[in-house]
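Reopening closed ticket. The problem is back. First fold of the pair:
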Amino acid sequence: MTPIASIGSDFKVSVLTTNHRGHTPEEIADRCLARILVVSETAPDPIRQQAETFRQSLRAVLVLYMNEAATSERVTLEAKLRNAGFSDAADILRRL
């Protein structure tokens, strides 16, 4: 992810695109972590190592719950399609 614009000293705009797909939970977790956890390049090595270990643990938790959210969204959409009378579409969605 590369910042494409900077507004002031604290605000950067970044764009991350994909081709023919949405973003994976892993990609979203990485973007989220870039905003949540920043460690100074001048921090002592033990602190940097501890922060990196924490980052990896937090990433695993974020990915787990994002996958659960995606599954839950599909279940909700399937139910809405079925309730609206689109059983064929609901079946297709369930098989994806």
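Second fold of the pair, where the issue appears:
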Amino acid sequence: MINKVIEISPSILSADFKFLDEDIKDIINAGVKYLHFDVMDGQFVKNISFGIPVLKSLKEGYYPLIFDVHLMIIDPEKYLEDFIKAGADIVTIHYEAVKEEDIIRLSEFAHKLGTKFGLSIKPKTEVSKIKPFLKYLDLVLVMSVEPGFGGQSFIESSCEKISELKKVKEENKYQYLIEVDGGINDKTSKKAKKAGAEILVSGSYIFKSTNRKEKIESLR
């Protein structure tokens, strides 16, 4: 059996914004394909990060990356089209931020605009809550910390959710990718991969290092 390549999606929330272009080129040289954008509004989570202008300006930089945009905001429908037009290749909203009856419609809307659509769940939200929507998704993002701040410790029970999502995916031949975000390092990445994660989001572990290529390889 051929081992599937694990993709790494470095979170620019932990990058040095004084040298953002340099930091992004550094991780490109390290062989990553994804760039993770943690968008926070100070309401859905108790932190504020960045928004559409940063995404748009980086998209115009023509970096050869998949822009993986995670909306940790209330009322994501209000801004969904703007983020897509600004350059999101994947746009992920939170199950906890929308009404269930709107999820399929928002997925169809994103697909109509040519963007992949994902759904994220907080640590206290069970996989059972999103099972009715899995066939409409391109990505499921399991938060392995409480969203809002970097540098938190990995919540071990996240692996059970990842395993459950893998099982449902295989049984139903669904197409979504399983992504995990929060407390990812060389030790927790092994647990997440064993459970079935396919994309690992990591911020401070990568960007705070003097040898980012080494750190990225350690996650793989």
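Update: turned out to be a display glitch only; the data is intact. The chain has a mean pLDDT of 94. Residues 77 and 102 are 9 Å apart (CA to CA). Please close again.
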